[in-house]
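INFO batch 0412 | record 1 of 1 | parsing
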Amino acid sequence: MIVGEMSINAIMAIHGSTLAAGRSMRVACRMVNQTQSDTTGVRCDSLSGLSCKHSIPMNKSSFLILQFPVSAYSGKGDFSGGRKPITHVLFDMDGLLLDTEKFYTQVQETILARYNKTFDWPLKAKMMGMKAIEAAKLFVEETGISDSLSADQFLAEREEKLRSLFPTSELLPGVSRLLKYLHAKGVPIALATGSHRRHFEFKTQRHGEMFSLMHHVVLGDDPDVKQGKPSPDVFLVAAKRFEGGPVDPSNILVFEDAPSGVLAAKNAGMSVVMVPDPGLDKSFHGAADQVLKSLLDFNPAEWGLPPFDEENGS
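INFO prediction complete | emitting tokens
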């Protein structure tokens, strides 16, 4: 007997958990347009792609045991069996874990002001995640100052100005919770960043505890990283260095903030969650598998990872 009908909100109460075909999950469901007693039994076999393993009494907000008989839930509101389970996680650093992108913007705006030019978002979006020298060449060429300032000169000046700013870097919201939780649950995590070692040491000197949770760190000046993002090099190198590696890219979830980093992850054959700067045009979001406003919004269960404990939030 069906009470009223289940809305899309009830279906989305599944929270996008990735399940193997045939497995069950207990999910909270709300009934809408309810016309009969709150204690009437409920079943969901009328929903496309879902069937109830059990019918239970319903009390405004209760639980149903749902069976996924054919395929896994993709986390996007559709059912797709193509996604492999996530076993390992890779993180970018600048603009994702550390609030450092603002420093680059500040310094580059200062340099361009000498030439009566401005630093705009389309250029910033291209530079984010790239190796330093590649980004520098792009910067001087696209701003039209290459005749006055070479890429190497730009880097030297920028380096001097950034050196005093990087040690003040702060962790972005949700970073501490997510890294500590994945580590506690035994999910191998690693860093894959375009930053070179000198900058990495400046940026992380106040956050040693967080970065010590990483199984390993791959930097932009690593000799095995031949090309910067959007080349997949840094992510493929990181995949090889996990214990027992290389890890199958399809089992890896990448967190990125930069368009070039998202493309690098996809070029590596990995899934990617994008946490972009609010100022980034939404046209850059398309390649990501999921886009979040903050790491605080990430739900591990949507990717088949251990769900947050109740005290951690979900």
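INFO post-check: The chain has ten helices and twelve strands.
INFO record closed
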